[in-house]
Automatic annotation (TrEMBL):
Protein name: Erythronate-4-phosphate dehydrogenase
Organism: Shewanella vesiculosa
Name of the top EC class for this enzyme: oxidoreductase
Main location: cytoplasm
Active-site residue list: 209, 238, 255
A Pfam match: 2-Hacid_dh
Listed pathway(s): Cofactor biosynthesis; pyridoxine 5'-phosphate biosynthesis; pyridoxine 5'-phosphate from D-erythrose 4-phosphate: step 2/5
Superkingdom of the source species: Bacteria
Highest classification ranks of the organism: Bacteria, Pseudomonadati, Pseudomonadota, Gammaproteobacteria, Alteromonadales
Residues that, per the record, bind substrate: 45, 67, 259
Binding site for NAD(+): 147, 233, 258
Domain D-isomer specific 2-hydroxyacid dehydrogenase NAD-binding: 109-257
PANTHER family given in the database record: FORMATE DEHYDROGENASE 1 (PTHR42938)
Function: Catalyzes the oxidation of erythronate-4-phosphate to 3-hydroxy-2-oxo-4-phosphonooxybutanoate.
Length: 378
């Protein structure tokens, strides 16, 4: 069996190696010729899987995308060809949630503010939005959720309108899929008119898809409204984001909010599980056995933990400043965006750290251990 896999997908050898011959490819430049004799195609979000790519791949029976988003796949076409398709819903939700939370801690520190006490509006309360909300709520922040689709589906959480979020939230974090049609379409959800409604000093984070914000309008808006702070992980026109916008963002990264080792491993693992299920093979491997122990896997706390110390602790698993710095150096070269993603050093999730507290830990005013556990620490 021939398995074609994106070179940026970890653990393919460990999970699929015994099933066939694996060939690694650059997902962005993959050609029809390269997939012609594939039985299995494993991709990430940069590969457009459509008739143009797989028309001549007559043996192809399985396409797996180790991602949450599916906007790069023509799912209808795959179904007309009877090719099984699966993605990996939720695989990197924790990574995205922690990225958003850590970015907020970073903004607070950079601008001499306290994150505690702020109201956060989450737009899109699915896997990543819920993971982000979990961190915010663990830290005691008031969270407003906007998800008209979930509300209609009977989700029992409390939801508010997007207008309410814009009016009331100090921080807005976007977690919707990109959709171009329908009542709830998200393409340019934040257009010029909506951006102009943002209240003073709003922090706006986009970790979902670049086109959810009209990037040109955002440049114009931010040039006039520097009180608004931006954290942008995704961009219109990837892998070539607008240079003006990168310069205006407080934190800028190349679509790596979901790039924790756990998140990427989970993505590949979910495809492996689906493939085994389909062939009625036993699942012989476990996700835990793939992950190495983290360098700082145990932390002993000697006392109070302030917001600044929580940020320092968070930087052990993920230092956003490094990615922001490296991105600004490399994004404008022809391959900079993709190379940074390819060579990205895997960060870990909070769960990679176990906390042990010394007896005097629980003093007044400290961030207590149950809060850290709720954030995701072990
Ligand atoms: N930056 C990254 O690395 C990264 C990682 C993972 C996912 N993503 C992107 O984030 C998107 C969301 O991921 P997820 O796992 O949370 O998906 P999900 O499907 O679990 O949740 C998305 C939610 O958005 C809601 N929604 C849709 N249209 C909306 C609208 N107009 N207003 C408010 N809510 C709306 C849906 O009802 C759903 O609950 C993915 O589709 C993907 O494009 C990016
Ligand atoms: O949809 C997703 O899951 C993310 O956008 C994904 O993690 C992006 O990473 P890529 O697949 O491009 O490596």
């Amino acid at each position: 069996m021939k398995i074609i896999a994106d070179e940026n997908m970890p653990y393919v050898d460990a999970l699929f190696g015994y099933l066939g011959k694996i060939e690694y490819v650059n997902g962005r430049t993959l050609t029809p010729k390269q997939v012609e004799d594939a039985d299995v195609l494993l991709v990430r979000s940069v590969t457009k899987v459509n008739a143009a790519l797989i028309n001549n791949a007559h043996k192809l029976k399985f396409v797996g995308s180790a991602t949450i988003g599916t906007d790069h796949v023509d799912v209808e076409y795959l179904s007309t060809r009877n090719i099984y398709f699966t993605n990996a819903p939720g695989c990197n939700a924790t990574a995205v949630g922690e990225y958003a939370f850590i970015a907020m801690l970073e903004l607070a520190q950079r601008f001499g503010e306290s994150l505690a006490g702020k109201v956060v509006g989450i737009v899109g309360a699915g896997n990543t939005g819920t993971a982000a909300a979990k961190c915010m709520q663990a830290y005691g922040l008031k969270v407003l959720l906007c998800d008209p689709i979930k509300a209609l589906q009977g989700d029992t959480r409390e939801f508010v309108s997007l207008d309410t979020i814009i009016e009331q939230a100090d921080i807005i974090s976007l977690h919707v899929p990109i959709t171009k049609e329908g009542e709830h379409k998200t393409w340019y959800l934040f257009d010029e008119a909506r951006l102009n409604k943002l209240k003073p000093n709003t922090w706006l984070l986009n970790c979902c898809r670049g086109e959810v914000i009209d990037n040109r309008a955002l440049v114009k808006f931010k040039q006039q409204r520097d009180d608004v702070k931006l954290v942008l992980d995704v961009w219109e026109g990837e892998p070539n984001p607008m240079a003006e916008l990168v310069a205006l963002a407080e934190f800028a990264t190349p679509h790596i909010a979901g790039y924790s080792l756990e998140g990427k491993a989970r993505g590949t693992f979910m495809l492996y599980q689906k493939w085994c299920e389909l062939l009625d093979f036993p699942v012989k491997k476990s996700l835990e056995s793939l992950l190495p122990a983290f360098q700082f896997n145990q932390i002993v706390s000697q006392g109070d933990l302030t917001e600044g110390q929580l940020l320092k602790l968070s930087r052990l698993v993920y230092d956003l400043r490094d990615d922001d710095f490296n991105f600004r150096v490399c994004f404008s070269t022809a391959t900079g965006f993709d190379l940074m993603r390819k060579n990205h050093t895997y960060r870990r999730e909070y769960s990679a750290i176990s906390l042990t507290q010394s007896v005097d830990y629980l003093s007044a005013g400290s961030i207590n251990p149950s809060m850290l556990n709720a954030l995701g620490f072990n």
